Amino acid sequence: MLFSRRKNKQKNIPYISSSLPRFDEGGLLTERRVIIVSNRLPVKVVVKSDGFHLQQSEGGLATGLSSVYKRNDNLWIGWPGAFLDANQRAQVNPLLEAEKLLPVYLTEEEIAAYYEGFSNETLWPLYHYFPSYTLYKKNDWEVYCAVNRKFAEHVLRVAREEDIIWVHDYQLCLVPELIREQLPNVTIGFFQHIPFPDFEIFRLLPWRKEILKGLLGADLIGFHTLDDTKHFIASCSRLLNLEVMMNRILVEGREVMVDTFPMGIDFEKFQNWARKERTLQNERRLRSLVGPLKIMISVDRLDYSKGILNRLEAFELLLEKHPQLRGKISFIQLVVPSRDQVPQYKWLKDEIDKRVSAINSRFSSFGWTPIYYFYRSFQMDMLSALYKTADIAMITPMRDGMNLVSKEYVASKIDQKGVLILSEMAGASKELLHAIIVNPNDIEAMVDALLQAIEMPEEEQAYRIRAMQEIIAKYNVYHWVNLFIETLEEVKQQQDRLITKMLNRQVTENMIRHYAQARKRILLLDYDGTLVPYFSDINQAIPDRELKRLLTTLARDPRNRVVVISGRTHETLAKWLGDIPVDLIAEHGVWRKDHGRDWQKFTELNTAWKPSIRHILEMYMHRTPGSFIEEKSYSLAWHYRNVSTELGEERARELVDNLKFFSSHHGLQVLSGNKVIEIKNADVNKGKAARELLKEQRYDFILAIGDDATDEDTFRAMPARAYTIRVGSALSAAQYYLRSYQEVRALLNNFAEANVEELIKK
After folding, report:
1. Average pLDDT in the 77-99 region?
2. Would you say 192 and 228 are in contact if contact means Cβ atoms under 8 Å apart?
């Protein structure tokens, strides 16, 4: 048990046992240098009468990452938030350098197009599910690209390949790839602090592929919620057609991990602020002003994604439907100014002003004001006092990546009295399950939630707050930092292990040398995806002249036995490759044809199961436009290569689940190949066929190459001295991997040239 139910009697807060991992400012798990890259530095440059000064930012990111950039020789790279000329920069630079901050100076034009434009008028509304507010300006995109290059150049000036580079948020989506191009082996993490939209929303973006490719330059990509993680993976699969296994994406032979890391707050900081004398003084003043009133609080930045108007509507409806509450509850709405010259934001501010005025005009009485509205930010001692005073916090964004205000409110409740009403659209709702969770579009439900909060007994309030505080205390911001960095280093270690499997130059040279010296060789080659590219129409995979020439050259060497071992029908293989001197194995091992001989079966197989399976496949074919059934002598295949990726994969999973019971009782094997599900007799597979071939002669050079799950049987059947190669994925029983059929042909061409050299020597 990390948390005990024992309480601190003096302060009535949960007792946190010493076994709880503590992630304080000195607790970063890595000793490697970390370079943080974000749009803004964690400080603001302010001008005073005696010159320039640095003022610490209060944001959660600045707080959490202070444990990183202030240690050792770590750095933080970002814009200092001011437009400075050359002389001013010369004065500010030493101040920043002393704090291990490296500034990226931007012009007013760059901020207008890159930050205010593309970042906040294109990505922000689209990612928060407001496509009607989204602007698609080519010039803004071009400036966004240029500024991302500027950030990457600043990183590259100081970065070394042994560093960890941690890039933050949607303003810098292209930076990971730009760094990767120059430092291919460096460790890069990316974290997005806002939501990532569903594919149907994200696909509206004209530059969607460029954004995905930019992010995939990272080794680890993090989001606040599982939904965001899934949305990103689905977009990569559907738009870039990349291979995805669980939460790992294969990008040009490099494995990128995408995972969920809910961000926390500095729990102890907010608990400490709640006990400070200045906070207590402010709390007493507030309580004397409001008297016995119930207080509800909301704290938001001015933004249409925060649900402020819906919240005001719910409060108005509460007072309308329940007149007994008039004079007994007041709503304190804090709105932090933000971009109020932008049309949507200016309109929103005007609407808030009107709604607050209308509600107060309608319901106010002598001595009671329904809504106290503040359009400004508050110092920490006042904000903490407001959190402590408020009986209810209503945090109801329409869409939010995390929303740390909800956690700050709960952390500040050292007396454990208070109720949190939280939007299900906020990432924090996935952790703070003891809040009252609401849909911010359901005004009636929000009114019911307010009533529930007003009437909630103190015992229940304490139980809920205590449960949420335990979560927030454990999964604090330092835990988030360390977990991300630790995972990033693990991902890099896994990549390094996979790189050793890549068929590099040295391994290739050793293999060719072994091949040239061997007296008896066998080459076991899969066909689709290995010797030819992957086609959406299975009948288009006809061998080209170059491939037939290559196979013929290899097969004519008397020391070679070239075997094409495929899942194709024996009729197709005979038609395509029957005129060249290679051996053929069809339908995963059912049929065999040695060059110059007729086809023969390895064994007689039962096909009584086929009508029942075909009936199931036909049902899926009718439900899935673009899919089709291929019938072979002793197997059936359901192809979905012409189906949209997401639908095809979902149907394939369903089909495999449905076939499990039937196949296990009829001696069948269900194979998941490249956009195909194949059902065949379990007694036959490529591995058994390959083993039979190896029994016939002793070979001193054995090579097996394939590209999908059906070839794994071949790899596992090979002796330890054989060379086994998986095409397109390193996640395999094979020793090595290549990225494409072109690389397979290049390797085979090396063998063919080695043959010629041997003949010349003789």
Report:
1. 91
2. yes
CB atoms within 10 A of CB 284: 12
299 in helix, strand or coil?
Answer: strand
Task: Using DSSP, state whether 618 is helix, strand or coil.
Answer: helix
**pLDDT of 125 strictly over 80:** yes
Q: What is the DSSP letter of 290?
A: H
Contact status, residue 663 vs residue 679, Cβ threshold 8 Å: yes
Distance between CA 682 and CA 641 in Å, rounded? 24
Coil, helix or strand for 119?
helix
Structure tokens given for 646: 């997401």
* 3-class state of residue 162 by DSSP: coil
Q: Do residues 714 and 524 lie in contact, with contact meaning Cβ atoms separated by under 8 Å?
A: yes
| Averaged pLDDT of the chain | 89
Q: Would you say 295 and 419 are in contact if contact means Cβ atoms under 8 Å apart?
A: no
Give me the active site residues, please: 526
Residue 8: pLDDT band (50, 70, 90) is very low
Strands 43-48 and 51-56: antiparallel
Residue 419 pairs in a beta bridge with 392
Judged by DSSP in three states, 223 sits in strand
Greatest CA separation found in the chain?
A: 111
Rg of the chain on CA atoms, in Å: 32
Query: If we measure between CA atoms, which residue out of 470, 402, 469 comes closest to residue 60?
Result: 402
pLDDT at 474: 93
Indicate the angle between helix axes 267-275 and 380-389, nearest 10 degrees: 80
Q: Between β-strands 628-631 and 635-639, what pairing exists: parallel, antiparallel or unpaired? A: antiparallel
Q: Which amino acid is at 614?
A: R
Q: At a CB cut-off of 8 Å and minimum separation 6, what does 280 contact? A: 385
Q: Cα 117–121–123 angle (5° rounding)? A: 105
Q: What is the 3-state secondary structure of 382-447?
A: HHHHHHHHCCEEEECCCCECCCCHHHHHHHCCCCCCCEEEEECCEHHHHCCCCCEEECCCCHHHHH
**Is 672:709 a contact under the CB 8 Å cutoff?**
yes
Would you list the DSSP string of 504-537?
Answer: -HHHHHHHHHHHHH-SSEEEEE--BTTTB---SS
Nearest CA among 536, 465, 431, 498 for reference residue 728: 498
What is the C-alpha separation between 560 and 701, in angstroms, rounded? Answer: 9
d(CA 153, CA 162): 17
Closest C-alpha among 522, 495, 507 to residue 690: 522
pLDDT tens per residue across span 642-690: 888 778 888 998 898 888 777 777 778 888 878 899 888 877 788 888 9
In 3D, which of 470, 589, 541 has the Cα closest to residue 17?
A: 470
Distant-in-sequence, close-in-space partners of 530: CB < 8 Å, separation ≥ 6:
705, 706, 707, 711, 727, 741, 744
CA angle 180, 186, 188 (to 5 degrees): 75
Q: CB burial class (10 A; 0-12, 13-18, 19+) of residue 643?
A: buried
Contact 646, 654 (CB under 8 A): no
55 burial type by CB count under 10 A (0-12 exposed, 13-18 middle, 19+ buried) = exposed
Checking 6-14 for CB contacts under 8 A at 24+ apart, the result is: 11/414, 12/414, 12/415, 12/416, 13/271, 13/414, 13/416, 13/469, 14/466, 14/469, 14/470, 14/473
Retrieve residue 410's tokens: 């709960």
531-534-535-537 Cα dihedral, nearest 10 degrees: 90
Tokens of 126: 């689209």
